[in-house]
């Protein structure tokens, strides 16, 4: 999430570790974190359980959020908030359609 460093907010998904400058200038939210105290560094999903219950898997939650953040209607309605703080992600009535659109968008990358 690019918050507070311009008039437009933006979102980026990456499979790779991001550049330090990118991390410094943005709010980065990892999909997973790791428990350093565990013997084999257990992977912990960084998504609230109530969201996980609404989707088939953790990747679908990420895809849905990415789709919402790229929705022109969402950006228009929450433009002021997106410049100041982390976005609130609504659960839309057409969740499946948004998820399908997001998957199509991600396949273009």
Output the keywords.
single chain, 109 residues, mainly alpha, two-stranded antiparallel ribbon, 2 strands, 6% strand
Question: How would you describe this protein?
Answer:
A hairpin with an 8-residue loop joins β1 and β2 (43-45). A two-stranded antiparallel sheet has the order 1-2. It is globular, with a radius of gyration of 15 Å. 43% of the residues lie in helices and 6% in strands. With 109 residues, the protein is mainly alpha-helical. The two termini are 17 Å apart. It has 6 helices and 2 strands. It has helices at 20-25, 49-52, 58-69, 72-77, 79-84, 95-107; strands spanning 32-34, 43-45. The model has no long low-confidence stretch (mean pLDDT 80). The protein has one domain. The relative contact order is 0.16.
Structural topology:
Blueprint: H1 20-25, E1 32-34, E2 43-45, H2 49-52, H3 58-69, H4 72-77, H5 79-84, H6 95-107
Antiparallel strand pairs: 1-2
Could you give a quick summary of the protein structure above?
The protein is built from 6 helices and 2 strands; from the N terminus they run αββααααα.
């Amino acid at each position: 999430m690019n918050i507070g460093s311009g008039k437009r907010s933006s979102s980026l998904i990456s499979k790779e570790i991001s550049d330090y400058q990118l991390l410094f200038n943005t709010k980065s939210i990892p999909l997973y974190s790791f428990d350093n105290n565990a013997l084999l560094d257990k992977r912990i999903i960084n998504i609230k359980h109530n969201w996980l219950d609404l989707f088939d898997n953790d990747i679908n939650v990420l895809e849905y959020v990415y789709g919402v953040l790229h929705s022109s209607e969402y950006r228009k309605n929450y433009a002021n908030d997106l410049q100041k703080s982390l976005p609130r992600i609504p659960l839309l009535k057409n969740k499946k359609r948004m998820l399908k659109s997001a998957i199509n968008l991600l396949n273009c990358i």
